[in-house]
What we know:
The chain has about 350 residues and is of the alpha+beta class.
Amino acid sequence: MTNQVTIEHLSIKHGDQSIVSDLSLTIDDGxxxxxxxxxxxxxxxxxNAIAGLLDVSEGRIFISQKDVxxxxxxxxxxxxxxxxxxxxxxxxxxENLAFALKVAGLKKTDIKARVDxxxxxxxxxxxxxxxxxxxxxxxxxxxxxxxxxxxxxxVLLFDEPLSNLDAKLRTELRLEIKKLHQxxxxxxxxxxxxxxxAMTLADRIAVMHxxxxxxxxTPAVIYREPATRFVAEFIGSPAMNFVTGEVSAxxxxxxFNADELQLTLNAAYPQxxxxxxxxxxxxxxxxxxQGEFTLEIIEYTGADCILWCKNNHHTWVxxxxxxxxxxxxxxxxxxxxxxxxxxxxxxxxxxxxAN
Length: 355
Ligand SMILES: Nc1ncnc2c1ncn2[C@@H]1O[C@H](COP(=O)(O)OP(=O)(O)OP(=O)(O)O)[C@@H](O)[C@H]1O
């Protein structure tokens, strides 16, 4: 049986407020999908609807080709991991892992086999006798993940599982989740507002905004070819630079003209007003006493330097190597990579593609 998840024209309301509207999405068997978006965009609402924890107003949800739109959570063929762990505090880690299987009436030997297997995968064997209060945050979350694994469901849902952990533990557990997916190949739907988590874990990222999916694509496509201005600005740190101007004809390539920038593009694009977006690492700085840009601030981050450069009242954020010799007040020339940029419509915010 394949563990595909299909969502068709899903709408969810709270009172008369629309939280998710007409959303459709197909998640392939074994795929790792991350739902990413700013706070309040509806990610958890969508996940909870898939889990069966809230009612949907319109639309259908299919799991493994079965219509589960109105099915009980336990009958959907999925298991969920929550941000808050939700472990039973009076039970040991081992009892927490076994609990749902006991309730489901599994034989003792089967329960032990499944608990032992999950404990081995998650390196929980030495901790099985401890209560949650005797575990660290990372260990508790591993128990919570184990509790979902022992149920041996084809679809796993994760709701911001790492957000209660400190940065180092988050990185460690992120890797464990990735390994886990490579090993088990479950279909995995993972909610986060952390773009590093999304970029590193996902086969495809669904970027959400106001209850809709703005773009669903591989991390590389989301980063290099954002479909909308919103996605372009939301993904990447420091954020993409934007400048409003005019695309004019040129043969074979168009020209982009703004007060702050004139750039010959790499191909012919539809003429007219547009917004150009360019990532900080697609701009190359060079010290030049005759340069038109002034270096206002230089930030050293260890691996890189972030430069804040000004011309015509516009500030450009540039990412360069950590050995860059400039200092505040220096004059610069900036070279803009004309193969690594995005153009957006000023009216719709949608990406403008070459003719
Ligand atoms: N029970 C509820 N009643 C009314 N409004 C709700 C309810 N639950 C959520 N909302 C609203 O629905 C919207 C989406 O919430 P949701 O929790 O899905 O967002 P999210 O993208 O997961 O955000 P976060 O990252 O902050 O968890 C928010 O505006 C929220 O205020």
